[in-house]
Write a structure and sequence with these properties.
By secondary structure, the chain is an all-alpha fold. It has one domain. The protein is globular. Keywords: Ligase, Membrane, Transmembrane, Transmembrane helix.
Length: 394
Amino acid sequence: MRLTVNTFSLFLFLFFLFLNLQTLTLTGFMVVEESSVKFYHIFSLFFLPLLFLKPKNGIPKIPPFIFEYFVGIIVISLLLFLVYPFNRLIVNHLFAFYAFFIGYYVAGPITQEQVFSILQKAALLLFIVIVGKLFFHIPEIQRFMKAPDGHPDIYTIYGGGTNLEATWMGLNTALFINRKRLFYILFAVTLAVSVIYASRVGVVITFLVAGFKFISATTSKQERIAIIMLGLIALLAFVLFIDLDNLAEKVYALQRFTEFGSSSDKGLSGRFAMWRYYGTALWDSKLLGYGAGNGIYAIESISRIDYQEDNLHNLYMQLLIEFGIIGLFLYLIVVYNISIKALKSRLSNPIAIIIMVYFIASLIQFRGTDALIWLFIGLFLKIESNKVKLAGNE
């Protein structure tokens, strides 16, 4: 028995939508407890029947470098848990692999164009939800603009607060690189939301996506010329007519950039407060790691300080201290293989841009268990695999 493409399409639309609604749990919306079961966890179970109702080409074979990475970090963690405390984050890694497999599986019976269309429709709905809920937070936004400090107290649909919401908005903007007008509209919207949220990383990621779109094969020569001309005009206008120091005082998001690395930069100061003990903690593990989720435990054990953060805000440092040199090496193989495929596609696949920006943004946030990004990776690898098979049959 075979499922129709419409069934796969509907599942992908809803699964992607719920993965973005990260604060939606079984007990209610806007619940941010890390231990709570998310709605997308339950919904993902509807994928299991698809394993028995095989698509046309059967169950796909997972790329070896993906399989080796996940098997490697799970085995490493189980061994390390004999010495260090067990951390339930290992379950998040398992779910990330599950999300990858879902993406890799459903991209088989669905064409590349259908995948992009499905993701775009869901992403548009998410943009509407995010912008719409800002109107309910106007009093808080006004208060924050008058006396800014950190980020405004706004409910988010993503776990991790306003910074992560701005991050995922920026990443999802890449889905529209083949929709010129819509892309630039959403680019402006995401940039505006990042400024309201005072999210530096949101601004950076939005411009990174725009930069990758600029060099993408989907961007015409005429469009590049127009972008360069507008950019030069904007730069000239800033230099001649705008007092940047005065503007920074009025726009808090810009002020946060001017504070980068200074003593008033609370975000970076908090990271440095953890990282100063990183080398000692890593050496104490003999470069073998402490197991999934035990990165902060390792730092706290050495420093004797309790930190509010639940990760090191650098994915590569996180992987090294949790899974040791072997785990990091396995992940870098994943990064290398995907990056090569993304560059070979000339970044014409919007999902390739999302993944590439994620790899860069991982230098300042993320901890490797983002099911949403692993869904993207699964979709991307299968789409590119389908292209190779199609080219071989011609």
